[in-house]
């Protein structure tokens, strides 16, 4: 049995210890916001936070998050109480098909928590592992800057 914190709540699972975290979150705990894209750590669709760091959960064994804090897009914000990035994402009309976007937002949230006022270069470096087949990179940048600027004013 492996226990960990999922969006602030302690959960336990008896899946094999090598099962990837993404599988556990989607199939066992039925949180479907994190997506399966490449399955080999190259596209970023599966990005969650583990202890506040953006990680690729398709290649992270569940045993490696035992007793750690995992946050998914569902834990970042809700429709009723969205994260500032999610508000900016809507305001900037970032999502196209939407498939990559929860991973994009999780990477952006980890960036802003470490660097509240990133430059374009900082954003490109932090986001380079998140692939978008719809090509929303320009709007993602705008939304991250808008969130950073709003945070600066408040
Ligand atoms: S599905 Fe995990 S990086 Fe692509
Ligand atoms: S919005 Fe379609 S893959 Fe990014």
Automatic annotation (TrEMBL):
Domain of life of the organism encoding this protein: Bacteria
Record-linked Gene3D superfamilies: 3.10.20.30, [2Fe-2S]-binding domain (1.10.150.120)
KW Mitochondrion (keyword) present: no
Matching InterPro entries: 2Fe-2S-bd, 2Fe-2S-bd_dom_sf, 2Fe-2S_ferredoxin-like_sf, 2Fe-2S_ferredoxin-type, 2Fe2S_fd_BS, Beta-grasp_dom_sf, Diverse_Oxidoreductases
Pfam families: Fer2, Fer2_2
Name listed for the protein in its UniProt record: (2Fe-2S)-binding protein
UniProt entry keywords in alphabetical sequence: 2Fe-2S, Iron, Iron-sulfur, Metal-binding, Oxidoreductase
PANTHER family reported for this sequence: BLR6218 PROTEIN (PTHR44379:SF2), OXIDOREDUCTASE WITH IRON-SULFUR SUBUNIT (PTHR44379)
Originating organism: Sneathiella marina
Matching CDD domains: fer2
Residues of the 2Fe-2S ferredoxin-type domain: 1-76
Keyword match Nucleotide-binding: no
PROSITE patterns: 2FE2S_FER_1, 2FE2S_FER_2
């Amino acid at each position: 049995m492996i226990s960990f914190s999922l969006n602030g709540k302690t959960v336990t699972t008896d899946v094999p210890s090598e099962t990837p975290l993404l599988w556990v979150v989607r199939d066992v705990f039925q949180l479907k916001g994190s997506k399966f894209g490449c399955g080999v750590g190259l596209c970023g669709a599966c990005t969650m936070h583990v202890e506040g760091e953006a990680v690729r959960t398709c290649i992270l064994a569940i045993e490696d998050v035992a007793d750690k804090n995992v946050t998914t897009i569902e834990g970042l914000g809700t429709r009723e109480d969205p994260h500032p990035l999610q508000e900016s994402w809507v305001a900037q009309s970032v999502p196209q098909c939407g498939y990559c976007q929860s991973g994009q937002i999780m990477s952006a949230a980890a960036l802003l928590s470490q660097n509240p006022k990133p430059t374009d270069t900082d954003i490109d470096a932090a986001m380079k592992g998140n692939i978008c087949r719809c090509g929303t990179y320009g709007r993602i940048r705008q939304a991250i800057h808008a969130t950073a600027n709003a945070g600066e004013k408040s």
